[in-house]
Each structure stands twice: as structure tokens, then as C-alpha cells.
Design a protein that fits this description.
Blueprint (H helix, E strand, L loop, with lengths): L1 E7 L3 H12 L4 E5 L5 H4 L3 E2 L2 E2 L4 E2 L3 H19 L4 E3 L2 E4 L3 H11 L8 E4 L12 E4 L3 E3 L1 H14 L3 E3 L7 E2 L5 E2 L3 E7 L19 E9 L8 E4 L1 E5 L4 E5 L13 H14 L7 E10 L8 E4 L6 E5 L5 H18 L13 H4 L3
Parallel strand pairs: 1-2, 1-14, 2-11, 7-16, 14-21
Antiparallel strand pairs: 3-10, 4-5, 6-10, 7-9, 8-9, 12-13, 15-18, 15-19, 16-17, 17-18, 20-21
Helix pairs in contact: 1-5, 1-7, 3-7
Length: 351
């Protein structure tokens, strides 16, 4: 069977790319092993200003409206709201970050994303102050991926299979099993490190633990950002996370990380009580050396592509980059230089 694009991996990157390409009339097929991936574990936080230095995401004026529009489009199609807008309180960590916050509040480009506030909320400890972060929220990634999988199956565009690189035939025609795609796009997350064509790219994966919990006491109505985060889901359930471990990449639960996450939470919200851990999940973020995505065409095999490396910001970044990649495939428009893997052709594909 001939298809335009075969996508390997049905995480958030593979799913949203499949939607974008199919919306443009391309015949798409997705292969996935059906197992839990980092996108299903992720909280899906959308946060224009992040990091210790409170840095505004580059190109946010295009990224954020497009992300919101895409999730609204998907909500209309599936009859399910996948994006929840929710304000965020940034609990400042010390004098240095407090001074950085004061500086950001004077910068005009931050005006739509940060506000000063004296509100602390009941039981929240913030001795160095709080910033109100605007235009924040979260993507319900697990619900979205379930809906996308159902949609792909209904179209006959989904294969659940353990993918083996040896099954790809490059010549005389590109093939995978019974499929004859024009292009193959790898959206494998951290598993791309084993990819024989793209595995030498500078991934810097990191293990993260996220806890789903219930509480016997009322929860804040905002997302709390304090190095880790608290994401309220209902009146008495929440998620908290995430740890960051670039050295230990096994998928096993981390009892010590669970203890540390709950201790950090109680240091900020000491009155929270009766916490019960409902689910302890582990994911491996597909982060990269330069903190930019890895997108583009293999220098020797023009039919092979990668769309990966979005790290913890996938909910915000992927819709916009999926459009840019679709433009690249369909119209041969250039990719943004910051994400194009051409920046690594000389150093990671030679020899």
C-alpha cells in the first residue's frame, strides 16, 4: 500500500504531526508499540515564561495562539476539551530570582505574561514573593492521545507493532513491511538514540517522576510553580512533579523521588494534609543539547526525517513546528534554522 508519510511513534509529536499532514490531504500511517510513552506521563504544562531566569519563550507570539487554536480545533472535532487554561503562581525561590522578577516586570515584552501580585492564598509560603503567570494551562495529553489513536484506527492509519529498523528497505524503493511510503518520519522520543540514521544527534534525555495524588484538604485553584509544580485537577486531586535525572534513565519508579516531591510540596503548602499517592509514573523526556527541537531530513537519505526533541515544552511547541514541517515536506519551504538538523550535519553525520 502506498502512503505519503509513515510516522514512527504516537506520542504528542507523532499524533499532532499526523493530524497536520492528514488535514492537508496527505495519506498518513502511524506505527506505535502501544506502550506508555513520555507524552502520556507528562503534565502537558503550557507556560510562556520558564526557567530560573524567567525567560520568555522565543517566538511566543506565534507559538501560543497556534497551540490554542489547534487544541480548540481538536476539541470541536472530538467533542472533548483537551486544553485547560489555568493561571499559574510562580513562587520565587530567593533574592536572586526576586530581583530577576522585578526586572522582567519592567520589560514590555513580558507584560502579557507576568504580573506582580501580593496574593499568596491560604497556607502558601512564599517569603520572597509570587509572580502571577498569565496565558498558562495544561494539555490533557492522555485523553488527547487516546482520541487520536481512535481516530487513526478508524481511518485505517494505525499499526500497533514493535518497530524494527531492519524492516525498512531503502532501495530500490522505500518500504516498511507492506507499506510503500514516500517519507518516513521518526517521532520516537528518547528511543531515537538507538536510531541507526539519527541516533548520533545530541539528545540529552532526562528521567522524570510525576505523582497523581488525592488530598483531604482544599487545594489551590492555580498551578503552583516552585521549581517543581502542583497542578490541581479537581477539588481533591492533583498532580505534582517533576524530577529531572539525566543519568538514571531506567523506567522504574523512584521511591526516593516520591518522598522528595511530596516534601518539596509541603514546604510550599504546609497545610496540605491527607495526601495519598494514586499513581507514580515515570517518563523519559526527549530533551536536546541546545534545548531546541531536532527536525529535518537525513543528509544522505532524503526520504528519512526526524521530528523530535521537544522536551517538556511539547504542548506549546509541537503545533507550530508541525505546521513548519508540513510546509517543508509539501512546499520545500525552509525549516527554522534553530530546529533544522542541518546545524549538526558536519559534526554528527560525517564519518
Amino acid at each position: 500500500m502506498v502512503v505519503d508519510v509513515l510516522i514512527i511513534g504516537q506520542g504528542l509529536a507523532g499524533s499532532l504531526l499526523a493530524w497536520e499532514l492528514a488535514s492537508r490531504g496527505l495519506a498518513v500511517s502511524v506505527v506505535d508499540n502501544g506502550q506508555c510513552n513520555a507524552s502520556r506521563v507528562a503534565a502537558g504544562l503550557v507556560n510562556p515564561v520558564s526557567g530560573r531566569r524567567l525567560v520568555l519563550q522565543l517566538n511566543i507570539a506565534e507559538l501560543l495562539p497556534l497551540a490554542k487554536a489547534r487544541y480548540c480545533q481538536l476539541a470541536r472535532f472530538f467533542g472533548n476539551d483537551f486544553f485547560v487554561e489555568l493561571p499559574m503562581w510562580k513562587i520565587l525561590s530567593g533574592p536572586t530570582q526576586m530581583h530577576q522578577a522585578e526586572r522582567r516586570l519592567r520589560q514590555t515584552e513580558y507584560a502579557g505574561y507576568l504580573q506582580a501580585t501580593s496574593a499568596g492564598g491560604p497556607g502558601i509560603l512564599a517569603p520572597f514573593g509570587i509572580l502571577r503567570q498569565l496565558q498558562t494551562g495544561y494539555v490533557k495529553t492522555e485523553s488527547l492521545l487516546d482520541a487520536m489513536r481512535t481516530w487513526l484506527i478508524a481511518r485505517g492509519s494505525y499499526r500497533q507493532a514493535e518497530f524494527d529498523y531492519a524492516d525498512i528497505q531503502l532501495a530500490p524503493d522505500l518500504r516498511w513491511r507492506d507499506l510503500q511510503p514516500r517519507h518516513i518520519v521518526f517521532c520516537e522520543g528518547h528511543l531515537a538514540r538507538a536510531n541507526p540514521w539519527f541516533g548520533r544527534l545530541p539528545f540529552q534525555p532526562a528521567k522524570g517522576v510525576i505523582l497523581s495524588c488525592s488530598s483531604q484538604t482544599p487545594l489551590p485553584s492555580q498551578i503552583l510553580n516552585y521549581g517543581h509544580w502542583l497542578l490541581p485537577l479537581t477539588n481533591d486531586t492533583f498532580k505534582t512533579g517533576a524530577t529531572f535525572d539525566p543519568l538514571n534513565l531506567n523506567p522504574e519508579p523512584e521511591p526516593a523521588s516520591e518522598v522528595a516531591l511530596l516534601a518539596d510540596l509541603q514546604a510550599v503548602v504546609p497545610e496540605i494534609a491527607g495526601i495519598r499517592v494514586i499513581r507514580h509514573q515515570v517518563g523519559i523526556r526527549p530533551a536536546t543539547l541546545d534545548k531546541e527541537p531536532l527536525i529535518g531530513r537525513h543528509p544522505q537519505h532524503s526520504c528519512l526525517h526526524i521530528f523530535n526533541g521537544f522536551g517538556a515544552k511539547g504542548g506549546l511547541l509541537i503545533p507550530w513546528y508541525a505546521e513548519r514541517f508540513a510546509d517543508f515536506l509539501q512546499q520545500c519551504l525552509p525549516l527554522p534554522p534553530t530546529c533544522d538538523i542541518k546545524r549538526y550535519y558536519a559534526s554528527h553525520f560525517s564519518g
